[in-house]
Automatic annotation (TrEMBL):
Top EC group: transferase
Family: Belongs to the cysteine synthase/cystathionine beta-synthase family.
Membrane-topology descriptor: Single-pass membrane protein
Record localization: Mitochondrion outer membrane
Protein name per UniProt: Cysteine synthase 2
EC number(s) on file: 2.5.1.47
Domain of life: Eukaryota
Domain Tryptophan synthase beta chain-like PALP positions: 11-273
SUPFAM superfamilies (alphabetical): Tryptophan synthase beta subunit-like PLP-dependent enzymes
Pfam families assigned to the protein according to its UniProt record, in alphabetical order: PALP
Species of provenance: Schizothecium vesticola
Keyword match GTP-binding: no
Length: 317
């Protein structure tokens, strides 16, 4: 996104330009780090209900962090709309510097980067065989870009599966063609809807990035918060891998997908966030569920059946 902006004259290094973005996850952190390295400043708008670790890290990376109350996308105070407005206000100052709104949800540079880099990397690492690719969608850039590469460029018959947390409408969009989440039922909607401890994926609108690959998505798996928490704890106990909420959702959906495929199939997913960015919210929930207690029995049962039992998939798909 930065390279595209530079090539079109929307950004120029060491001129005083600022990159603005509305984000709940890793994109803002990446932009903040790259902004400094390339001679820009970063201004990140994010919802106030996100984990404090992210805001702290952004601050240490030199970004200006503006935390705002959660609001619907139709509101001018939604974190994405606020970032767009802040960029326009910066440019309107007329002091020779520019404010650039990165627009990760709608920028074609997002999915194109995954089509050009992530997809080929996956194919190299698997020796050219990918029977299924499973990923969540925040902006939709990862799943669309990888799907476009694997199915169109590489010509594989890869099954592409969306991993969707509770509270998101994308599952129903993929499975039934209607953007709808159960929390939108009459009598269940709240002014500030917080439906999941999962951050970074799950959304109730269609983005340009998701649309770029939507027709290539074959199926969707809905993952509950409890399943995500249990998977995260399993990965720590059995593999020594400390993941965040999005990665845990991806892994649950990958297991569910594997259950529906022939034994020996190659199922690929993405570990897109570290647990260190999710300690105060997601991993707090893991602890409150008692999953970190010594008497929980995580170190006793082993094998495939134990995993399925732990994440609530035993005997189901």
């Amino acid at each position: 996104m930065i390279l595209t902006a530079e090539s079109t004259g929307l950004l120029a290094p060491h001129r005083g330009d600022t990159i603005y973005e509305g984000t709940v996850g890793s994109t803002g952190i990446s932009l903040a780090a790259l902004a400094r390295a390339r001679g820009y400043r970063a201004h990140i708008c994010m919802p106030s209900d996100q984990s404090t670790e992210k805001a702290t890290l952004l601050h240490h990376l030199g970004a200006t962090v503006e935390r705002v109350p959660p609001a619907p996308i139709t509101s001018p105070d939604h974190f994405v709309n606020l970032a767009r407005r802040r960029a326009a206000e910066h440019t309107a100052r007329g002091d020779g510097t520019r404010g650039f709104f990165a627009d990760q949800f709608e920028s074609a540079a997002n999915y194109a980067a995954h089509e050009e880099t992530t997809g080929p990397e996956i194919l190299r690492q698997t020796g050219g065989r990918v029977d299924a690719f499973v990923a969540g969608a925040g902006t939709g850039g990862t799943i669309s870009g990888v799907a476009r590469y694997l199915k169109r460029t590489a010509g594989l018959a890869t099954r592409v599966v969306l991993a969707d947390p509770q509270g998101s409408g994308l599952y129903n969009k993929v499975r039934h063609g209607v953007m709808y989440a159960a929390t939108e039922r009459e009598g269940t909607r709240r002014r500030s809807q917080v439906d999941s401890v999962v951050e970074g994926i799950g959304i109730n609108r269609l983005t340009a990035n998701f649309e770029a690959g939507r027709e290539l998505v074959d199926d969707a798996v809905r993952v509950t918060d409890e399943q995500a928490c249990r998977m995260a704890r399993w990965l720590v106990e059995r593999d020594g891998v400390f993941v965040g909420s999005s990665s845990a959702v991806n892994c649950v959906a990958a297991v569910a997908t594997a259950l529906r495929m022939p034994r020996g199939s190659v199922v690929v997913t993405v570990l897109c966030d570290s647990g260190t960015r999710h300690v105060s919210k997601f991993w707090k929930q893991v602890g409150e569920m008692g999953l970190e207690d010594e008497d929980e029995g995580w170190g006793v049962e082993v094998g495939e059946e134990a995993l399925l039992k732990a994440i609530g998939l035993k005997g189901s798909t």
